[in-house]
Amino acid sequence: MLEPRTEPRAQLEATARRIRRDIVTSTTRAGSGHPSTSLSMVEILTVLYFGGVLRYDPSEPHHPERDRFILSKGHGAPGLYAVLAEAGYFPTEDLSTLRQLGSALEGHPNMCRLPGVEASTGSLGQGLSMGIGHALAARLDGHSYRVYVMVGDGESEQGQVWEALMYAGNRGLGNLTLILDRNGYQQTAAVAEVQPLDPLQDKIEAFGWSARTIDGHSLDEVEAAFSWAQSVQEAPQAIIANTVKGKGVSLLEATPGKWHGKPIPPDEVEKALEEIGA
Ligand SMILES: Cc1ncc(C[n+]2csc(CCOP(=O)(O)OP(=O)(O)O)c2C)c(N)n1
Ligand SMILES: [Mg+2]
After folding, report:
1. Could you tell me the distance, in angstroms and rounded to a whole number, from the CA of residue 151 to the centre of ligand 2?
2. C-alpha dihedral over 155, 158, 164, 165, to 10 degrees?
3. What is the chain's alpha carbon radius of gyration, rounded to the nearest angstrom?
């Protein structure tokens, strides 16, 4: 029987701090990777995996009834890996092999190599379509699992995301939840400068989705959003999460446009870990 892991609040907060710590240390050790991308999604993934939402069993990673999580913004791999290690899919020590030749912890998630990874992503724009495939398969096979997909706000400029939104809305895929990590920045600039998305919630709703906008760093709001999503049956649900790129580390938060894909320099790590409190 698959049960979600449900940690009490104080434990959840500590888990989030450990995940932030692992994101910072693994990327600095690797000398590359995307800590700021990963830090913006920590509360969302913490609640999803440890706050009573996702049903999974690391000892049976391919259980047919498991809920699926697809990280469409695959460059957030260090965040996903920290969560999967915490969940027990592989030892935490393996995080120190991030991006090393031969390691299953590749720069972007590889579903053929690492248990717990549901889709190989990194080429942006594809994850929601993959999630639709799982959601349709559940319907066809009579399974009760739910599918969660996280997409970036810069990634949302891609046409395939909007094709997927249109299709899922038309099909009324109630077992599909999109989380849009709206951290305001893409690779080199603010999303609002490159391709404004607003009115984002109205647009998604116009495609037949139920949608709400939350503070993606409030554990309360993230928990409430996931229980709302689970209660909607007739339409796919979108959680637009307003977040901060690099959340928790002042160096990254100060100039988010400058830190995409850059690890924290070794001499700044101690201060970053102090700020995180882990
Ligand atoms: C198809 C494709 N085009 C370009 C890239 C290069 N790329 C990697 S991350 C990124 C920016 C993504 O921004 P966003 O979706 O907002 O993610 P964030 O890091 O802010 O969470 C780009 C353009 C890619 N990985 N895939
Ligand atoms: Mg972004």
Report:
1. 9
2. 70
3. 17
Evaluate: CB of 187 within 6 angstroms of ligand 1.
yes
Count of positions (residues) in the chain: 278
pLDDT at 110 over 90: yes
Task: Determine the distance separating the centroid of ligand 2 and the alpha carbon of 254, expressed in angstroms.
Answer: 15
pLDDT at 1: 66
Q: Find, among 157, 240, 239, 244, the residue nearest to 192 by Cα.
A: 157
Position 232 scores a pLDDT of: 98
The contacts found for 140-145 with CB under 8 angstroms, 24 or more apart, are 143/64, 143/65, 144/65, 145/55, 145/64, 145/65, 145/66, 145/67, 145/68, 145/175
Which tokens is 150 given? 């996280």
Q: Is any atom of ligand 1 closer than 6 Å to the C-beta of 195?
A: no
Distance of CA 15 to the CA centre of its chain: 15
pLDDT tens-digit readout, 39-87: 999 999 999 999 999 999 999 999 999 999 999 999 999 999 999 999 9
Question: For residue 145, what are its two tokens?
Answer: 């699992």
Q: Separation of 78 CA from ligand 1 center, angstroms?
A: 15
Strand partners, 15: none
pLDDT in tens, 123-148: 999 999 999 999 999 999 999 999 99
Q: How far apart are the first and last CA of the chain?
A: 33
Domains belonging to the chain, first-starting first, are 4-276 (3.40.50.970)
User: Which of the ligands is closest to the CA of residue 154?
Assistant: 1
Asked if residue 185 has its Cβ within 6 Å of ligand 1, the reply is yes
Residue 206: phi and psi, rounded to 5, are -65, -20
